[in-house]
Each structure stands twice: as C-alpha cells, then as structure tokens.
Amino acid sequence: MNTKLIGIALIILGAIMIIWTGFTYTKKEKIIDAGPIQISADRQKTVNWPPYLGGILLIGGIVVVATSKKTA
C-alpha cells in the first residue's frame, strides 16, 4: 500500500480527532425482561478521546508524508 496515502489518512483522522473530541450515541437497553413483559429505556453513551491523540496522529501523518519516497 502507498505510504503517502496512509500518511494523508493519518493527517485527516488526526485533524478530525482534534476538532471533535468525542461523540454521543443512544442505545436501547432492556430494563426488565420477564417473559412476555419487556421494558426498555434509551441510554446515552459517550465516547471521548484526548485531543493530544489527534495531534499525535496529525504529526505522525505529516512525518509519513514527508519521508515517503516519490513514485513516478
């Protein structure tokens, strides 16, 4: 696989992770499951990551692109 393409993907992913430091989604969970009676509730779950992780990916992508050999 082309290392320059991997570097560009790392740059894009790193920039996205710096801008958005997480996301929230809704998951339906069963509260009671007693035979024919089922009660469920919507619960919000949050996924967060530290912004420095995006910075590391961004810098790593720049390094990969800068050190990749030119292909003709």
Characteristic terms for this protein:
two-stranded antiparallel sheet, alpha+beta, single chain, elongated, 35% strand, 72 residues
Strand-helix topology:
Elements: H1 3-19, E1 22-34, E2 37-48, H2 51-67
Question: What's this, in brief?
Answer:
The chain is α+β, with helices and mostly antiparallel strands. 47% of the residues lie in helices and 35% in strands. Strands 1-2 form a two-stranded antiparallel ribbon.
Number of helices: 2
Query: What gross morphology would you assign?
Result: elongated
Helix content: 40-55%
Strand content: 25-35%
Order of helices and strands: HEEH
Distance between the termini: 15 Å
How would you sum up the major sheet?
A: 2 strands, antiparallel
Structural classification: alpha+beta
Count of domain modules: 1
Overall description:
The protein has helices at residues 3-19, 51-67, and strands spanning 22-34, 37-48. It has 72 residues and is an alpha+beta fold. It has one domain (3-67). The chain has a two-stranded antiparallel sheet with strand order 1-2. Helix 1 (3-19) packs antiparallel against helix 2 (51-67). The longest helix has 17 residues, at 3-19. The mean pLDDT is 89.
